[in-house]
Amino acid sequence: MTDIITVTANPALDLSTEAQAVIPDRKLRCTAPLIHPGGGGVNISRAVAGLGGTSRALVAYGGTTGDELVARIRAEGLTPEPLGVTHPTRQSISVRDRATGLQYRFMLPGPDWTEADATAARAAILAAVTEGALVIPSGSLPPGLPVDFFLDLAPALARRGARMIIDTSGPALERAAEARAGLYVLRMDTVEAEELSGRTLNSLDDMAALAEKLRAAQAAEIVMIAAGAQGTVIASPDWRGLTRPPVVIPHSKIGAGDSFVAAFAMSIARGEDAVTACCWGTAAAASAVQEEGTRLCQRGDTERFFTRVERTAL
């Protein structure tokens, strides 16, 4: 089975809690927090494990928060591998307003990286990559790390037959879209797609047209746009369309994207086609939004939802 390697340059210790109401200029009495290890790549590896798979998690961590992060990752049966960068790990917090059901997410920026940090991380990643691996850098970039950092790794990975899956945003997404770096998968959500295109995407057809345009421009072999409860739009060499999840009652959107990528990667690693993999990802995302706080997809729900995902050509 193909190796799955996740890379988290800017992890966080995630705290999630609830308050009766989120009101300015008041002391807000919150519930006892749920605490989980966080960061895109960390969450993807956690979700892979929860779905019964295996992966390698490369993580930059340091300080007392980093120690707790690693302890919690290990408590979930994973063995994080250091990226050779030991700046103190950041924290993040999400607060759910019980009165409205809205969730507020506060993300700290993380430590500043130096050129030496980037060099150390690059060496650690290349040393870890195996022939044909799926390499998944995910999550925000720490300040000081160039937006091209992962794209610049793509040629070296390609020489080893490795494929890169990138789920990113902001300037890093813009560069990924225009770089023609030989990516296997480029994924974004609707807001990020609108920012990238500079216009409102009023329909699923608009999203599909953008995904196909990016694919034709060689941004990636497969381009996907997450369309919330409607599902995921995918443009692949063989098919363009929507994978629609069953209707579920959402509780938290945290971790839905990471759950998607985890299930998608596991399917590809098993040798399944990209559209089937997208259906698995859609099922995992539907499972994740039902969970509280930063909990990820559940295996039983994901397997059950997979049988109910609909495929519609666009």
From TrEMBL:
<dbReference type="GO" id="GO:0016301">
    <property type="term" value="F:kinase activity"/>
</dbReference>
<dbReference type="InterPro" id="IPR029056">
    <property type="entry name" value="Ribokinase-like"/>
</dbReference>
<comment type="similarity">
    <text>Belongs to the carbohydrate kinase PfkB family.</text>
</comment>
<feature type="domain" description="Carbohydrate kinase PfkB">
    <location>
        <begin position="27"/>
        <end position="297"/>
    </location>
</feature>
<keyword id="KW-0418">Kinase</keyword>
<keyword id="KW-0547">Nucleotide-binding</keyword>
<keyword id="KW-0808">Transferase</keyword>
<dbReference type="InterPro" id="IPR011611">
    <property type="entry name" value="PfkB_dom"/>
</dbReference>
<keyword id="KW-0067">ATP-binding</keyword>
<dbReference type="InterPro" id="IPR017583">
    <property type="entry name" value="Tagatose/fructose_Pkinase"/>
</dbReference>
<dbReference type="Pfam" id="PF00294">
    <property type="entry name" value="PfkB"/>
</dbReference>
<protein>
    <recommendedName>
        <fullName>Phosphofructokinase</fullName>
    </recommendedName>
</protein>
